[in-house]
């Protein structure tokens, strides 16, 4: 069946609210490419939104999942527990930043992990408020819509939203006049202290590099200053590393770049080679504050997803995918700066590791140009490169290749991108 025929079927079966970036339907995918039902191939600069860091159908993941499917598919960890859930938690406790006693709990999606991190922080502190940032993205459930900044398409007409969420300015060097990190943090902190009161704040929730909001990298010193304030005021510092985690930014987690140790970390996307799994990992005294039975969910830490996660993490170690991300940064970064040097629409090349982006504006201004961004992205799709856009203004073209992409695939993808800019 052709993609066109599948699209017709879809339009009478699948809810319109669920969109897709390309109109082609996937037949199979590998470490760096996606092939549709008609045999057309795309070089993958999306990785299913930073999920397939180890590639699609990574050999170890396939083997582990196959073996698990044959043993058992589901018992519910809250009913009859199993080893792989415990093993994933042990791995996350060891891998995440901070040399202190930790505990983890497993869930199904990033949004669910964020919801649970907020539940845990509120329960442990007995405080109601949550501080979030401009351009933040934390998910699409009711609480996480409230935590997310952007109205269209995430929140529009989906309210009313959960209360006690307070939004403060992010450090966004391109758009805040290059404010240094400590000054930008002081600006956010002052707002919280004057408008909310630190003693009412359960948690400060932040993406160390923003994902959907535009791959915004805060100025150096911003995260450490917020971390310091949270420590001084008893606020739980939650790092949402759902997009940045698992080697994506050239380290296991993006917080490590500035030596920041979160109290709680939310994880999903890259965790399990494409299987649906999410986690909250953090300080034992916070995690264990919650009464028995207070956390959980029917599918959370499903054994097949846990098998996938253990195999994916092993693959990340074995292939040193953090180093691979740094290699991608060096090759792709050079190429993006070359393009930016000749194209005045590119206001900035930014990001870290294999999480890079260009912000596109009207030349000579900071006025966002979402139309040009969409046009370049569409030209990439037509020429066989899968790219994504993001950003509050829809004017950021982002690149998230699988970390196992071959040098040849990476080079071919960058050639297509180069040509798409004209
Ligand atoms: C994708 C994402 C989420 C939501 O994850 P889902 O699995 O889609 O619910 C939350 N936070 C960040 C930073 C994300 O990138």
Summed up, what is this model?
With 422 residues, the chain is an alpha/beta fold. It is built from 13 helices and 15 strands. It has 2 domains: 3-57 and 320-421, Aspartate Aminotransferase, domain 1; 61-319, 3-Layer(aba) Sandwich (Aspartate Aminotransferase, domain 2), CATH 3.40.640.
The end-to-end span amounts to 35 Å
Q: Provide the domain count.
A: 2
How would you classify the helix and strand content by structural class?
alpha/beta
Name the CATH homologous superfamily of the largest domain: Type I PLP-dependent aspartate aminotransferase-like (Major domain)
What is the quaternary state of this protein? single chain
State Rg. 21 Å
Strand segment count: 15
The main pleated sheet reads as: 7 strands, mixed
Q: Tell me the CATH topology of the largest domain.
A: Aspartate Aminotransferase, domain 2
Count the DSSP helices: 13
CATH class term of the largest domain = Alpha Beta
CATH architecture of the largest domain: 3-Layer(aba) Sandwich
Query: What is the helical fraction, as a range of percent?
Result: 25-40%
Read across the widest sheet, the strand sequence of neighbours is: 4-10-9-8-7-5-6
Please mark out the parts with pLDDT under 50 across 5 or more consecutive residues, or reply none: none
């Amino acid at each position: 069946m052709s993609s066109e025929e599948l699209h017709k079927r879809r339009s009478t079966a699948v809810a319109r609210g669920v969109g897709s970036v390309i109109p082609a339907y996937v037949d199979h995918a590998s470490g760096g490419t996606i092939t549709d039902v008609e045999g057309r191939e795309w070089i993958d600069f999306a990785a299913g939104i930073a999920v397939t860091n180890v590639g699609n159908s990574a050999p170890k993941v396939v083997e582990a999942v196959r073996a698990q499917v044959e043993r058992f598919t589901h018992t519910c960890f809250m009913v009859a527990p199993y080893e792989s859930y415990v093993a994933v938690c042990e791995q996350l406790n060891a891998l995440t930043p901070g040399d202190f006693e930790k505990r983890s709990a497993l869930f199904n999606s990033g949004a669910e992990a964020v919801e649970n991190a907020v539940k845990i922080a509120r329960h442990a502190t007995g405080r109601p408020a949550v501080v979030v940032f401009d351009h933040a993205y934390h998910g699409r459930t009711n609480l996480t819509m409230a935590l997310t900044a952007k109205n269209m398409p995430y929140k529009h007409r989906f309210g009313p939203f959960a209360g006690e969420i307070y939004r403060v300015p992010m450090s966004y060097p391109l758009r805040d006049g290059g404010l240094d990190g400590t000054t930008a943090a002081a600006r956010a902190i002052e707002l919280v202290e004057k408008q909310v009161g630190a003693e009412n704040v359960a948690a400060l929730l932040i993406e160390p590099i923003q994902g959907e909001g535009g791959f915004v990298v805060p100025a150096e010193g911003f995260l450490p200053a917020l971390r310091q304030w949270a420590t001084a005021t008893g606020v739980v510092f939650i790092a949402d590393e759902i997009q940045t985690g698992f080697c994506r930014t050239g380290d296991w987690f993006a917080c490590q770049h500035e030596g920041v140790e979160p109290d709680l970390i939310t994880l999903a996307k890259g965790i399990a080679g494409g299987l649906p799994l999410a986690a909250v990992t953090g300080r034992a005294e916070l995690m264990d504050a919650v009464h028995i039975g207070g956390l959980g969910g029917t599918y959370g830490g499903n054994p097949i997803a846990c098998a996938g996660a253990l195999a994916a993490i092993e693959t990340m170690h074995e292939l040193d995918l953090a180093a691979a991300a740094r290699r991608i940064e060096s090759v792709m970064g050079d190429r993006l700066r070359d393009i930016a040097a000749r194209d005045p629409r590119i206001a900035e090349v930014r990001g870290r590791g294999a999480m890079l982006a260009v912000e596109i504006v009207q030349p000579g201004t900071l006025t966002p140009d979402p139309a040009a961004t969409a046009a370049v992205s569409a030209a990439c799709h037509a020429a066989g490169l899968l790219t994504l856009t993001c950003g509050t203004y829809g004017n950021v073209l982002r690149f998230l290749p699988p970390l196992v992409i071959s040098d040849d695939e990476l080079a071919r993808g960058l050639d297509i991108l180069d040509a798409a800019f004209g």
